[in-house]
Design goal:
Layout lengths: L6 E5 L4 H12 L3 E6 L2 H13 L4 E5 L5 H15 L4 E4 L14 H29 L3 E6 L13 H20 L4 E8 L27 H12 L10 E4 L8
Parallel strand pairs: 1-2, 1-4, 2-3, 4-5, 5-6, 6-7
């Protein structure tokens, strides 16, 4: 198993992509902490993981609060003594353009989607450096970081910031043996921050089916595994070809 003996944290692990990554990781032998703001979602995912024989737990919190990110790392270390892997999946999205978006929604979207990823990465990295055994971090950007939208701006800005943040973190943490990369999904599974299920979403890609969380989870698994040792500071598109279409 590729992650046997590894301890992983999945931020936003209570639904959609985060949930898919959690199930993929435990299949490969990881011990897993799910971090989510919703107790019902977190409990449901962890219960399902334990039903498969996994060693799993959850921590509740708000990624936009640095003290909650610290609590997440501290709780994981108290349980298993270390952190080897962090995957940052948590995000919310705006639904209005520049001329209509309320200032508070701009701040909230950036606080959760960009600052939340920063806080979790920062405190996980501090722990990894302290351990002295390296580690792997995967942040979630989006195809939205690389193209304009007629009805959204804060989410796109946050996801663009994650790309730059990932590159700088990769440079700064590489001397400690910590690899940092990002995933840029296209349209995946259920709507971010919305209620539209996969089967109801309109999509166009080169494969003719919507990308599902399990598809993205396979790419995340590769990036955190030893097989990706020489992939550092990159943002990988996992979008069924959407990014190369005219």
């Amino acid at each position: 198993m590729k992650l046997d003996g590894k301890v992983a944290i999945i931020v936003g692990g209570g639904r959609n992509v985060g949930e898919g990554v959690a199930h993929r990781f435990v299949k490969e032998g990881a011990k897993l902490c799910v971090f989510d703001a919703d107790k019902g979602r977190a409990e449901s995912v962890v219960s399902a993981l334990k039903g498969k024989g996994a060693d799993a737990m959850y921590v509740l919190g708000n990624v936009a609060q640095p003290e909650d990110a610290q609590k997440l790392v501290r709780s994981t270390v108290e349980r298993w003594g270390k952190v080897d892997i962090l995957v940052n999946c948590a995000a919310i999205s705006d639904r209005k353009g520049l001329l209509e978006l309320p200032d508070e929604q701009w701040r909230e979207t950036l606080n959760v989607t960009l600052s939340g990823s920063y806080y979790c990465m920062r405190y996980a990295a501090i722990q990894m450096v302290k351990q002295g055994r390296g580690g792997a971090i995967v942040n979630f950007s989006s195809g939205s970081a690389f193209r304009g939208s007629p009805g959204r701006i804060a989410y796109d800005a946050a996801k663009g910031g994650i790309v730059s943040m990932t590159m700088s973190a990769a440079v700064q943490l590489a001397p400690h043996g910590i690899r940092v990369n990002a995933i840029a999904p296209g349209m995946v599974g259920a709507q971010v921050g919305g209620a539209i299920p996969p089967e109801k979403r309109n999509f166009t890609n080169l494969l003719g089916r919507i990308t599902m969380p399990a598809d993205v989870a396979n790419a995340v698994l590769f990036l955190v595994s030893d097989e990706a040792e020489h992939i550092v500071g990159q943002c990988i598109n996992v979008d069924a070809g959407m990014s190369v279409m005219a």
